[in-house]
Amino acid sequence: MNNQITITHNDTNTEKSLHDTDFYKWALHNANLIRQGRFTDIDVVNVVEELESMGNNNKKELASRLLVLIMHLLKWQYQPKRRSRSWISTINTQRAEIEFLLEFSPSLKHDIELIMEKAYKKAKISFENETDFDKKHLPELCPYTFEQLIDYGFRPESFADNKTLHLENK
User: Are both 62 and 143 inside the same structural domain?
Assistant: First the structure.
């Protein structure tokens, strides 16, 4: 992709304000400056900010995908009579999206345990809100390993099979 954007002095937007008024044009312009080796002309402050933001967005997306996955695994485990193809689809979709994220950003795995625990805390709240099941009855720490979360063959057994707490009527 070689989109040439030239900023002239006649433009109503300066390069510095272009970031705020026409992000696409700003991004293409700065990419061209980098390709040309014109590093002193780059809007360094905003480029750095955007690069950091991109990394944070990937981390947020991973956490969001883990939250949905964990919540559906909890529902699978605690509501075995309500299991559906829709739940299986959601579980597998989240696994696929997590796989893509980690394929393109493998360094996200370095923080995976912390991201999982944060996602689990939020998943417990979502689970409680959706099922009226008191989250205090759930394990304090995520009951699934990362390997289980990304394993397409893994679905937790029902707590009903374990003669433990389960929720069917909610």
Answer: yes
Range of the domain at 127: 58-150
Local confidence pLDDT in tens for the 170 residues of the chain: 556 555 544 444 455 578 889 999 999 999 999 999 999 999 999 999 999 998 899 999 999 999 999 999 999 999 999 999 999 999 999 999 999 999 999 999 999 999 999 999 999 999 999 998 999 999 999 999 999 999 999 999 876 554 445 455 44
Assess whether 31 and 92 both reside in one domain.
Answer: no
Closest CA to 92 of 108, 72, 122, 114: 72
Do 32 and 111 lie in one domain? The reply is no
Three-state SS for 3?
Answer: coil
Does residue 52 lie in a domain region?
Answer: no
pTM, rounded to two decimals: 0.77
